[in-house]
Design a protein that fits this description.
Elements lengths: L2 H27 E4 L2 E4 L7 H29 L2 E2 H8 L3 H13 L3 E7 L2 E6 L3
Antiparallel strand pairs: 1-2, 3-5, 4-5
Helix pairs in contact: 2-4, 3-4
């Protein structure tokens, strides 16, 4: 997979995640009423606020993936619990990032370790 294809896959995976997140946010905080979108506590969110929230979430995901990559480069191969301990992220969040990073070709399985799968940066 070329670097361009890898980047495109990562972008598609990120957009897919944020579509799901935005949909969940919409489902959790909104209800339809009298032909307009009503927010919890009778507050309406404008488009810019939603864009800002999504942009911040994307930046946070990039920071978290960078932390995972740095740990794998320094200490890899590592398991999900080891990555969670090293980065301070929850294990389910680490797993979510690892799956996206695998799909984009950045990370690959590196065998078994301590009764679980270990992951490492994919060699180019």
């Amino acid at each position: 997979m070329s670097e361009t294809e890898s980047s495109r896959c990562a972008m598609q995976a990120t957009y897919s995640l944020f579509y799901e997140m935005f949909y969940d946010l919409y489902q959790d905080s909104c209800y339809a009423g009298q032909g307009q979108l009503m927010m919890s506590k009778n507050e309406s969110k404008d488009v810019q606020t939603v864009k800002n929230e999504l942009t911040n979430a994307i930046r946070e995901n990039k920071r978290e993936r960078k932390a995972i990559s740095m740990q794998l480069e320094a200490k890899g191969p590592l398991t999900i619990p080891e990555l969670a301990d090293a980065t301070g992220l929850r294990a389910d969040k680490v797993l979510q990032h690892i799956l996206v990073m695998m799909k984009s070709g950045e990370v690959a399985e590196a065998g078994e370790k301590d009764g679980g799968y270990a992951y490492n940066i994919k060699e180019r």
